[in-house]
Amino acid sequence: MLKINNLHANVGDTPILKGLTLEVPAGEVHAIMGPNGAGKSTLAHVLGGKPGYDVTQGSVEFRGQDLFDLEPHERAATGLFLGFQYPVEIPGVSNVQFLREALNAQRKYRGEEALSGGEFLKLAKEKAGLLKMDMEMLKRQVNVGFSGGEKKRAEMVQMGILDPAFAVLDETDSGLDIDALRTVGEGINTIMRAPDKGVLLITHYQRLLDVVKPDKVSILADGRIVQTGGPELATRLEDEGYDAVMANA
Amino acid sequence: MPDSATLPTRRDEAWRYADIDAVAKIGVAAIGAWQDIDLPAGETRRETLIIGGDEPVARRIRVTLGEASRFEMFATNAGGDYTRLELEVTLGKGAHFEFGGVTIGGGDATREFVTTTIHAEPEATSNQTVRSVHWDTATGNFLGEIKVAKDAQQTDAAQDFKGLLLEAGASANAVPQLEIFADDVKCAHGATVGQLDESARYYMAARGLSPEMAKRLLVQAFIGDAFVALDDQAEHERLLEAALSALEEASL
């Protein structure tokens, strides 16, 4: 579903990704762990198409298409969802308006009918319920005045409403208390655990993986994948630390 | 204040950013013509105005507010040439003046609001909100003078200006001027000028919105502040649409 081959990317003039290769087939939840500065967030933003992140070499194939042929909004409409580590506040725009316009823009790109206001609200209510978010919150402005936990929960509601084929979740667990972590983890399971979907889960901590239970875990260090294993690799990292595990690789 | 027989020049404070060639085109007679509105005590009146078209426009309205009356004016200034709306408002005791205005457009035109708010008696309030969105080498201005007379205690006057420049050549000017002779007075003014939030545009793209849609939504949110106090939904939509259709004609 997602095939990353020998990816090199710069942020400004600084090389961050240095030959990253990784494949995530449909039906797989693949966790990426790694020390600070390894390039985890850069990977997420290169996949999302953030301005200022320049691919210098390599390729990414997403659902059979060259990802870099697509503009950022076209990547979203093709089924790629990027969960932000720091969701952006958009004053003056309500979640309901934002998500309805976003969903209908994606549907239009795919040649599907737009949802009416009523149909959209029904969908939003259902997905918000799954994430234990009330509709009042969806009427508020996008992320404005939201706590860290609320922002991450709102990201999951967005993911539920947009229903992507593949999610890249960049430290969705940072800043969450234990209850919010469980809610978000269960949200990922509910929305994304399916044979035709995939997840790239970027995280620092074992805690989220206790809930989401990845199929595979890879270590990203200095811009490359240096080791891939099963869920037990995350447990070892938690116990022994990156240096020890990578030294024994 | 220039007398009605001569054209104003840029030496006149209230015309310092005006397009003087366009002013000459409008002519002495039209420039000298004021519309007068006298609001009796206790009454409320609302005016909405859309300035469009390709001709230069200077509208001047002089409003006198009786005791405890309320005057609201909302305007979208989206003309294709020099366009000016000027308001001179004198408030009686306990009266309220509400103004919400948007200047929006490209080309090399100047679009401006010029207000003189005279708190002549005690306990009157005024609130003015202007948003300017420009591109190409266009300019948006808000010149807002507030005068508080010696006896006008417990005046509460506020002005808020924000400019959003979509291209590097555009500009926005805010000139608040306060002249206060009373001592128990609240006068607030604020002005900021910025550009579209790139991180918001990227976030919106990541959810599927094209750059054009993201821009429209961000501009809509930005100018929305100017019409918050306009509670007539149909008029609200009309002013907003006039502004957004100006944006859609732009080839940005």
| Main pleated-sheet profile of chain B | 6 strands, parallel
**What percentage of residues of chain A falls in helices of 4 or more residues?**
40-55%
Beta-strand content estimate of chain A: 25-35%
Class by alpha and beta content of chain A: alpha/beta
Can you tell me the residue ranges of chain A where pLDDT is under 50 for at least 5 consecutive residues? none
**Total strands of chain A:** 12
Task: Describe, in plain words, how this protein is organized in 3D.
The longest helix of chain A is centred in the middle third of the chain and has 15 residues, at about 95-110. Chain A is an alpha/beta fold. Chain A has 10 helices and 12 strands. Chain B has about 250 residues and is of the alpha/beta class. The model of chain B has no long low-confidence stretch (mean pLDDT about 95). Chain B is globular, with a radius of gyration of 18 Å. In chain B, the strands form 2 sheets. In chain B, strands 1-3-5-7-9-11 form a 6-stranded parallel beta sheet, with no helix packed on it. The interface of A and B includes residues 75 and 101 of A.
